[in-house]
Design a protein that fits this description.
DNA-binding, 5 strands, elongated, homodimer, alpha/beta, five-stranded parallel sheet, Arc Repressor Mutant, subunit A
Chain lengths: 219, 219
DNA sequence: GAGCCCCTCCCCCGTGCGGCGGAGACGGAT
DNA sequence: ATCCGTCTCCGCCGCACGGGGGAGGGGCTC
């Protein structure tokens, strides 16, 4: 049963992460890391050129993020590779976007080496298992809730949107800070900006406004 | 690294399917089929008794179907096993129900032996991989449209509903007290009860829960 | 280079909020 | 007659929150 090795590309802007992933994956005889990328744009070109079987794609990357890179690859390649989106937190709203963009899998950075390797093998070899097109359908439907939007939506900066999304998950400022990997004071600033722009007085009203404006894809 | 074998229970009303699954799975040294069931009801009792690591659960079964059996197991067991729901068609609406019921995975009957084995190993060993809580969230949301209201809704008293509605209007406790013509302390009590019954931490989370449960008339 | 926006982070301060642990009154159930 | 659930209300406490008013750096445009 000697199959050709599974060819992998790693896309992550942090060298340490790439190194760690490479170390884990290269230890497996049936896995071969054929390329790396440090930005979303680079990921797209590297993947187009090398045509790997699986891509481990970080969400957070300079220039073009992992979601957009995934979108582009899935949309433009005849036979796109299986793309596994890697992130730190499972409740990240990125998840939905990742699935909608066409990601085949979703992996947490805190996964152990064993899980990582098995996940790679799994997505590489099969297309009929854990949540295949069904998930795509779910995510697509989720996204179809693209609502008309309220006036204030367009006035929010990128960071403010991030913060509002997390507010709408019921997180405290401290928790949001941890997830966004910034200081609590920063989150406070963004929250204040969100409250001002949404014309609300506290986080609860802001979340209500978000729901009613269809800002959240749930609505 | 000799780990204890992964203990499996197969639940399927067709003997042929069980035999086939058993043949495939038993060929692997690290997998052990410890029990079988032919109905949903039987699956529940067998699983409760044997406490396997993974259950392969057919959707279509006599008496109680696989979805309900999954629901019951996940809801009632302290440490429910990983339940992989098995079906024939991927666009089956069962998929959504399965995920919502708490299934850890979803497998198509046309999967080859290799995929089956790997899927079992994967769900057994890890809980942080391909589409974890995110899928659950998606499925839950999907279900909300079809079947509104959450379990906690019916448990709220009349007054608690009143208070929750006003909370969802973004009012403070003092404001709610004025509208309901009661003391602020009373509102606090009701709010506390609402938080307890909705399993939320603060009013923001409670409002989110209300929105997502379709508790509000306009949502 | 000046101006502007965005993101980051800091201080102080008042308070709304939620947890904890009560209590009295009413009404329906058995 | 007793019990239980509901609604009403109390005090105390700690903390997360939001307001006010900043500061510094990077990136953009003009």
């Amino acid at each position: 049963m000697t199959r050709p090795a599974i060819r992998l590309v790693l896309a992550d802007d942090e060298r340490m992460v790439r190194t760690a992933l490479r170390a884990i994956l290269s230890a497996e005889p049936d896995l071969e890391v054929v390329g790396e990328a440090t930005t979303g744009a680079e990921a797209v070109s590297v993947v187009r050129e090398l045509r790997p079987d699986v891509v481990l794609m970080d969400v957070r990357m300079p220039e073009v993020d992992g979601i957009r890179a995934t979108e582009q690859l899935v949309a433009t390649m005849a036979e796109p590779p299986r793309i596994v989106v890697v992130t730190t937190f499972e409740n990240d709203s990125y998840v939905y976007d990742a699935l909608r963009a066409g990601a085949a899998g979703f992996l947490l950075k805190r996964s152990d080496a064993d899980a990582l390797v098995q996940a790679v093998r799994l997505v590489a070899r099969t297309d009929s298992l854990l949540f295949p097109s069904a998930v795509r359908a779910l995510a697509a439907e989720h996204g179809r809730r693209a609502a008309p939007s309220a006036p204030w939506v367009s006035k929010l900066t990128g960071r403010e949107r991030d913060v509002l999304r997390h507010m709408a998950d019921g997180l405290t400022n401290a928790e949001i800070a941890r997830r966004l990997e910034v200081g609590p004071a920063t989150v406070k600033s963004h929250v204040a900006a969100v409250l001002a722009k949404t014309g609300t007085r506290d986080r609860t009203q802001a979340v209500i406004a978000a729901y009613e404006a269809g800002f959240l894809s749930v609505g």
